Structures are given as C-alpha cells and as structure tokens.
Amino acid sequence: MDKGKIIDAVTSFLDYIRNKSTSSHTFINYAADLKQFSDYLEEQKIELLEDIDTPRLRAYLRGLFGWGYSKATIARKLSALRSFFSYLKKTGVLEHDVSRTLRGPSAPRNIPRALSTEAVNVLFEMASHSEEPVRDTAIVEILYGCGLRISELVGLKWDNVDMEERWLIILGKGSKERRVPFGSYAQKAMEKLREAQDSSNGFVFAGRKGKPLTVRTVHRVVTTLASRGGLDGVTPHVLRHSCATHLLERGASLKFVQELLGHENMATTQIYLTISASWMKKSYMANHPRANLEMGDDGSV
Fold first, then answer.
1. Is residue 181 part of a domain?
2. What is the DSSP letter of 180?
C-alpha cells in the first residue's frame, strides 16, 4: 500500500481484520466507523496520514457528540480508531500512535428540565400567597425573568438596578460585569420590594441587619413554593433554565441568550437548545405546510 494515503491504510487494516478470527459483526462495525472517519477527513481536505494528529482526532470525537451519537456509540467508534492507529504503528506505517492518549469526550452534563409556562404560573401564584409575598414574588420574577444565577441574585444591590430603563448590572463569574434587561412584571415586583424595605441603598434581597439573603434561604424559598404548588424538582437553577428555554422557543437568538446568561462560550448556551418533544411536534404541526391534510366540507380529504 501507499504508506501515505489514508484510504490505502484503511483498506490494509480491514484486510488484516478480515483475516483474523474477528466476528463479521465487529468487522462490519470497523468498516463503517473507519469509512465515516475517512469521509470526515476528506471533508477537511486531509488525504495523508502524516496530517492526522491527536487534536484532529479529538475534534472528530467532539463532532460526533454534536451529531447526536450516544456515548456508547462514540466509545465504539473510538475503539475502532485506536485499533486502526495501533495497527499502523505496529506495521511501521506510522512512527507514533496518535490515538494512544485519546479519551472519549465527556458527555454534556445533564441540565435541569424546563418548566412549562403553566407550572411557572403556579409558582407565581404560590409566591403571591406565601408568608412574604412581596419578597418571594420578586425572587421568582428575577430568577425566571432575568435568568440569574442564585449567587447573582443574592449579591444584587439597589445601586445596580436602573428601574427607569429596566437594566440590572450583574457581577457574574470571574468578576465579569454584564447588563441584563428586565420586564415590567419584575419592575413592579422590585418597586413593591423597595417600598417595603427600610433602605434602598443596600442589597435588593436583604435579610437581618441589611445583610443579603443566603443562597440556602433563596433555594429554600423556591423549593417550598414549588412543593406547595405540587411541583417536584424545582430549584433556582431550573428557573434559569426555564428562562433560557422559553426565550429560545419563542425565537430569541442563541447569541442573545448567551449574553443574557453570562456564558463565556457559546457551547455552554447550546445545551439549552434541548427542547421537549411535545413543543417540537406542536411547532411542526402549526407551521409546516404538509403537516395536516386539508379537509373538505363533507369531511373528505
């Protein structure tokens, strides 16, 4: 074979596998996985083995996650690549095995489910009838309406609230500052909260002696409201996720949601594109011209 060409190396490896006591099922999988890898390299305009390095392999594996393959399937494809490059090193085609240090990329971390708008309304209803309705309503309005992290909420000061223009100045992760808009509902809730407080110069959500509420307290407020409304598994972060998901479902751009949530990388924001199957079906049925049969007056199609 031509030692430099990828297609020849794959053919040689598959011949080697076929002549071993390898099951037909394993051989078929190896052939399919290496064909997919070869096609990827062709799209990248890579034809020679010497142009394949470890970062390139990592990029390919990350791409497999992006294409929707399960972790188990990617592990199988990685096994095929390791066998392929190990063979090339043993036969002297390559001096180094560029797959030796590869690990399967971690699956994207699980993210909390998004609440339905009906469930969010239940939460607001519970807040309006809680022991501290003004405070609790404002907490839910800002967590859900602005998508703040719980740490950002408890650290928010009145000096960083522009009530007239409806902007929050948020000090996020890594001490990075960002501006977050808020709506008229949150504006009304904060106005009531400010009227109820002794001072409007300190923390928005102040506890005893003007100190900010603790993260634990805010977490307890949200989970208690949810429990009273018959909602399970609702935390402050679920409200942040619900904010992002509902914005995307209603047409907000991914870039806008990235800026709103304070994500440094777009990849972090992309996990919020996970949407419910019911919403996908509803959107399809409402918008695709071939989704529904047209009925005649007599009920015929």
1. yes
2. E
